[in-house]
């Protein structure tokens, strides 16, 4: 076997590893987004809670990162909206949070 074939095999193996890493990142994002929705439906979190909005934001960002490997316009657009909605939720959370004055 010549060096070009060996190099080609190594490059293919590297591509598989990179694809696996992006899949893991994407699946982590999926679990965060779907998990936050399940927690909401089970009344374990409030839609105004920090946990819910951070899970959604983190999940959407991870899904967006995974799209860097296999781009899909529809998925990209929905993740941008998901991030925007999560940022609005976080803004409202911090805006409505009462400020405690130190004595």
UniProtKB/TrEMBL annotation:
Signal sequence coordinates: none
Keywords, sorted A to Z: Membrane, Transmembrane, Transmembrane helix
Pfam families in the record: CBU_0592 (PF26604)
Organism: Pseudoalteromonas haloplanktis (Alteromonas haloplanktis)
Annotated protein name in UniProt: CBU-0592-like domain-containing protein
Transmembrane helix found in the keyword field: yes
Chain segments annotated as transmembrane: 20-40, 60-88
CBU-0592-like domain mapped to chain residues: 22-96
């Amino acid at each position: 076997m010549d060096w070009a074939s060996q190099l080609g095999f190594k490059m293919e193996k590297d591509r598989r590893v990179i694809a696996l890493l992006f899949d893991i990142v994407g699946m982590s994002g999926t679990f965060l987004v779907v998990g936050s929705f399940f927690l909401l439906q089970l009344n374990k979190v409030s839609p105004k809670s920090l946990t819910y909005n951070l899970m959604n934001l983190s999940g959407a960002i991870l899904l967006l990162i995974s799209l860097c490997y296999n781009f899909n316009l529809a998925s990209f657009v929905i993740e941008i909206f998901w991030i925007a909605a999560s940022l609005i939720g976080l803004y409202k959370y911090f805006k409505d949070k009462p400020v405690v004055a130190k004595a």
